[in-house]
Specification:
Elements: H1 6-12, E1 16-19, H2 24-32, E2 37-38, H3 42-50, H4 55-63, H5 68-93, E3 101-104, H6 116-131, E4 137-142, H7 145-156, E5 161-166, H8 169-183, E6 194-199, H9 201-210, H10 216-219, H11 222-240, E7 248-252, H12 265-269, E8 275-278, H13 280-287, H14 303-312, H15 315-344
Parallel strand pairs: 1-2, 1-8, 3-4, 4-5, 5-6, 6-7, 7-8
């Protein structure tokens, strides 16, 4: 590869780049640019199937007599497996420290009439099922009450975990403690791997809508400050709880939402450590930017902005509102996906 590559400078700064997609073409493209993992969710799977590119594979599952729901999950499993194959050499080279692809368990668990205990049981059952036989697959579990409770039994079974939809320190603390409680039950920590997906841009969107008395300078730093403070806490915790593999933060929701923002604003802010899962368009615009990225992860906003943000943001309210929105954002595409597959099956 010749010429200046901004994404290569990001990786050189210490960041692991994971693609927020399992599109087979984009996975290969991002791998060539230095990406070492990928993540998926119901929106990504739904959008991929709607392109029609995978109709033959879908029809082959339906022809086997699978139900609509079974065929939908078989397709998800198939797509994630394709990406895992690309990143498996990274997993092997790093002895399990990198090279993962995330598989999100059923977002409709939170929607039905199941009790909390039944939801937890379902998360554990599905997490174990979809993890089996896939060494570099990470099971994505949301930081809801049920998801958080499922982390201890999942970790105790050796399932690599990506705790997603973390918006607040409270969620992060509970996730970390529950994962660690499960990990301590393992005979060996050699393959114990967990990551914590802290969402960024959605917090800035929330602040603009709900915390209108923030100064413009502070408003622009809410998501970045929260994620960096959690990163500091995570780094400190695992320094004192040594494990063979890194237990890392994923900086998620790194696509900018405001037209005037530079598309790589969040990419630059977290350069230097742990993992960024960037949407394909963010990577494309970042790679075309000509920028060079250096370590910024441990640099907080100005002290007066930090003080203002903590004085004015109600973190509990923020968590409640964003979690409600997030669950709907994943449940609706899953329902649409099931409907789409039902139509393909002629049902």
């Amino acid at each position: 590869m010749t010429g200046h590559s901004p994404l290569r400078t990001l990786i050189k700064s210490g960041t692991k780049l994971w693609l927020d997609s399992i599109d087979p073409d984009l996975v290969k493209e991002s791998f060539a640019l230095g990406a070492t993992g990928a993540t998926s969710n119901p929106i990504i799977v739904s959008d991929l199937l709607k392109t029609g590119r995978f109709d033959d594979q879908l029809k082959s599952f339906l022809a086997k007599g699978l139900s609509v729901e079974e065929a939908t999950w078989a397709m998800t499993d198939w797509l994630v497996t394709q990406a895992e194959t690309v990143f498996l050499p990274i997993y092997e080279q790093t002895k399990g420290n990198d090279g993962y692809v995330s598989f999100e368990v059923d977002p409709l668990i939170e929607e039905g009439t199941l009790s909390l205990a039944e939801q937890v049981e379902r998360y554990v059952e599905l997490g174990k099922k979809w993890s089996k036989g896939h060494p570099n697959r990470m099971i994505k579990v949301p930081a809801t009450p049920a998801g958080l409770k499922a982390l201890t039994p999942l970790a105790s079974h050796g399932v690599p975990l990506n705790v997603t939809l973390i918006f607040s320190k409270r969620q992060y603390h509970e996730a970390r403690e529950n994962v660690w409680a499960g990990a301590k039950q393992l005979k060996s920590l050699d393959k114990f791997k967990s990551v914590y997906s802290i969402f960024v841009s959605r917090l800035d969107v929330y602040a603009e809508a709900h915390v209108k008395d923030l100064s413009p300078e502070a408003q622009a730093q809410v998501g970045i400050l929260n994620a960096k403070e959690v990163w500091f806490e995570n780094s400190e915790f695992w320094r004192s709880h040594k494990t063979p593999l890194s237990q890392e933060m994923i900086f998620a929701s790194t696509g900018t939402k405001k037209p005037l923002d530079k598309p790589w604003r969040y990419v630059a802010a977290f350069a230097g450590s742990d993992i960024e899962t960037n949407p394909p368009q963010t990577n494309k615009l970042t790679e075309a930017s000509g920028e060079s990225f250096t370590r910024q992860i441990d640099k907080l906003p100005a002290p007066e902005l930090v003080k203002e943000i903590h004085a004015k943001v109600d973190w509990h309210k923020l968590e409640v509102v964003l979690m409600e929105e997030a669950l709907k954002k994943f449940a609706d595409p899953q329902k649409a996906l099931l409907k789409f597959v039902a139509e393909k099956a002629g049902k």
